[in-house]
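Hi support team,

I've been running sequence recovery on a batch of backbones for a student project. Most finish fine, but this one hangs at about 90% for roughly twenty minutes before it completes. I'm not sure whether the input is malformed or the queue is just slow. I've pasted the structure tokens below so you can try to reproduce it. Let me know if you need the job ID as well.

Thanks,
M.K.
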């Protein structure tokens, strides 16, 4: 059975764990939690991998209609995410159209979510690396709004800061909603998921 590859973008290691740039990792971790499954680091894959299945009942479901899902957290740094994604696509036989990339988005306010297929990388180095490695931008994106930096702070510095403690509760809700959006995209298709989750 063909698989869907759900890639969370982020930087590996505890230093980066709660940075705005790591919301992709956070969403993919939530999907693995729902499945009751853990990540492994297969030799040569350059990523942490979690294999599970998705049904109308949710992640980790079983049955004839279960969709095979591969959750991916690149162990390369953000700027080289494409190397890990291309390797995982080749290993699991996944085409770009069955890839879903979850990433932070400066151009959306915190609390907003946008699903799309294809498009440019909008200055996001993780997306740029994946486009280059796959030879196309025609993969799905779940864009998690983090907003623009305050004052004159450089976007490159802003994405490498933690969410404020005051936003923790809302962040948890947005991670949950983004995980729901990934499930809906795979189960119901892009348009139906956009109608529900695009804000």
């Amino acid at each position: 059975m063909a698989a869907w590859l759900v890639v969370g973008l982020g930087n590996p290691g505890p230093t980066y764990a709660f940075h705005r740039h790591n919301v992709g990792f956070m969403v993919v971790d939530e999907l693995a939690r729902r499945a009751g499954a853990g990540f492994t680091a297969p030799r040569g894959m350059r990523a942490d991998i979690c294999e599970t299945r998705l049904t109308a009942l949710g992640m980790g479901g079983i049955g004839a209609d279960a969709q095979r899902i591969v959750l991916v957290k690149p162990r390369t740094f953000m700027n080289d995410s494409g190397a890990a994604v291309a390797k995982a696509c080749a290993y699991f036989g996944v085409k770009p159209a069955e890839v879903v990339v979850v990433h932070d988005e400066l151009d959306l306010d915190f609390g907003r979510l946008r699903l799309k297929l294809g498009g440019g990388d909008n200055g996001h180095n993780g997306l740029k690396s994946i486009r280059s490695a796959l030879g196309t931008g025609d993969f799905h994106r779940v864009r998690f709004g983090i907003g623009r930096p305050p004052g004159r702070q450089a976007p490159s510095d802003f994405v490498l800061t933690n969410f404020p403690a005051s936003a923790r509760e809302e962040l948890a809700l947005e991670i949950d909603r983004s995980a729901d959006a990934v499930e809906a995209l795979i189960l119901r298709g892009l348009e139906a998921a956009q109608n529900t989750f695009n804000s």
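--
Follow-up from support: It reproduced on our side and the slowdown came from queue contention, not your input. The chain has six helices and seven strands. No action needed from you.
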